[in-house]
Design brief:
heterodimer, A: alpha+beta, 2 domains, four-stranded antiparallel β-sheet, B: mainly alpha, Rna Polymerase Sigma Factor, Chain: A, Arc Repressor Mutant, subunit A, 9 helices, globular
Chain lengths: 253, 185
């Protein structure tokens, strides 16, 4: 490479000159506008990580154009948005916080409990607009650990009953509403700290029985179950992409 | 209606710092203060309410993860938040590759003049309005539709009935003119 890395240079003489070298400020402006083509955009994002001068150029364009962003009309989001954010933040606390707030969405069935109960832990979830309550198991098992949750999301999505039977390694999901959104699928995930979420399968029918893989059962007391809304047919590549509509940690009694 | 005020910059910066420390109450406060405006920004790009709200959720999860990377010396908080929202919206728009069904909404420039001091820094607003006005009209149309509604080079080429390369040239010239003007103001 005859030219040095320079102010905006690639910093890596082995590769061809990147597209933005000729007009780095224009490329940064187009990145902020969103008009770079897909390949340029991907290359530019990678370069941003290692090129402070490009980051500065991007920040300058963001500041210059920001008044135009403010011309958008503000509108109140549906409460499900915050509920989804809370659930996802709880499922991925980033090791930085281990506080008890994560228990806000824990839904726990105690055997023999035969009345509606609003737990203290559920109170903050209610405050966030998430109607969530705990019910007694209609079919108490003589032994074993059962957990049950009823989740209602204000009509935008079907209410779900999720029963987890750890002894049998089964998860029963029952959808209370007539149908899932026609162009989407609901997918159930098993999340254990430090590992990628594993799909337990799609919730396709009104009543669904899914299996907790045997190698996961011993982890269950520390695991979180989550239900996400995915494209029809399930998450592409087995990786959750959609909003989390339900998340609850399992606790050993 | 919670709106983003220029005078709230210090408050927003404080909230972002608390979020970086893992404070969920601060995340909630940041959401209350900025989510309606960010939803508006996303919605005029992706145009579908449900998709926009999904994107908004992803935006706040990203803010939660990336709050530590916000540098108060690098700029005020609102452009940082708006950038996360716009990039998420544009990524989603490009992924879906659906044809643009609606006509361009005219009048974003006019709205610029109507923004109150609660919604934008007035000096920056006036400078941008003045300098956009000085940009050649076709170039200005491309800049504004790309920024506000997420129009791609190809879509702008179809709108103006010009080759994609011409649009690219217009965008670059428009940006250069805008920058020179803003730096001279």
């Amino acid at each position: 490479m005859s030219t040095g890395p320079g102010k905006f240079g690639p910093g890596d003489g082995a590769e061809a000159l990147p597209f933005w070298v000729e007009d780095p400020d224009g490329a940064a402006g187009e990145y902020v506008l969103g008009t770079l083509d897909a390949a340029e955009r991907a290359a530019f994002v990678r370069a941003l990580d290692r090129t402070p001068a490009l980051r500065a150029a991007v920040a300058a364009w963001e500041a210059r154009l920001a008044p135009l962003a403010a011309t958008a009309s503000a509108m109140e989001p549906d409460p499900r948005v915050w509920a989804g954010i809370e659930a996802q933040v709880a499922a991925h606390p980033d090791a930085q916080d281990t506080d008890a707030a994560g228990t806000a969405r824990i839904v726990r069935l105690e055997r023999g409990l035969r009345r509606w109960r609003f737990g203290a832990a559920a109170a903050s979830a209610l405050a966030a607009g998430l109607a969530l309550w705990i019910v007694a198991g209609p079919r108490p098992a003589p032994d074993g650990r059962q957990y049950l949750a009823v989740v209602d999301r204000g009509g935008a999505l079907p209410a779900l009953i999720v029963r987890v039977d750890l002894d049998r390694g089964r998860v029963h999901v029952r959808s209370l509403a007539a149908e899932t959104p026609p162009d989407r699928s609901l997918e159930l995930w098993y999340i254990h700290a430090g590992t990628a979420p594993r799909s337990l399968g799609l919730i396709t029918d009104a009543t669904e029985t899914l299996t907790v893989p045997s190698d996961l059962r011993s982890d269950a007391p520390d695991a979180t179950l989550a239900v996400t809304v995915e494209p029809k047919g399930g998450a592409p590549g087995g990786k959750a992409t959609g909003p989390v509509i339900y998340s609850g940690r399992l606790i050993r009694e | 209606m919670p709106i983003v005020k220029a005078s709230d910059d210090a408050d927003l910066a404080r909230l972002i710092r608390s979020v970086a420390e893992g404070d969920r109450t601060a995340l909630r406060a940041l959401y209350t203060a900025t989510a309606p405006k960010l939803l508006g920004i996303i919605l005029r790009i992706v145009q579908d309410r449900g998709a926009a709200e999904d994107a908004l959720q992803e935006v706040f999860v990203r803010i939660w993860q990336r709050a530590g990377s916000y540098d108060p010396n690098g700029g005020t908080p609102f452009p940082w938040l708006a950038a996360i929202a716009r990039h998420k919206a544009i990524d989603r728009l490009r992924q879906e590759k659906v044809a643009r069904l609606t006509q361009a909404e005219e009048g974003w420039l006019e709205r610029l003049a109507d923004l109150g001091d609660g919604e934008a820094d007035l000096a920056r607003r006036d400078a941008l309005a003045h300098c956009l006005d000085a940009v050649e009209p076709a170039q200005r149309d491309c800049l504004v539709l790309a920024y506000c509604e997420g129009w791609s080079r190809e879509e702008l080429a179809a709108r103006h009935d010009r080759p994609v390369n011409t649009i690219k040239t217009w965008l670059r010239r428009g940006l250069t003119g805008l920058r020179s003007c803003l730096e001279a103001v």
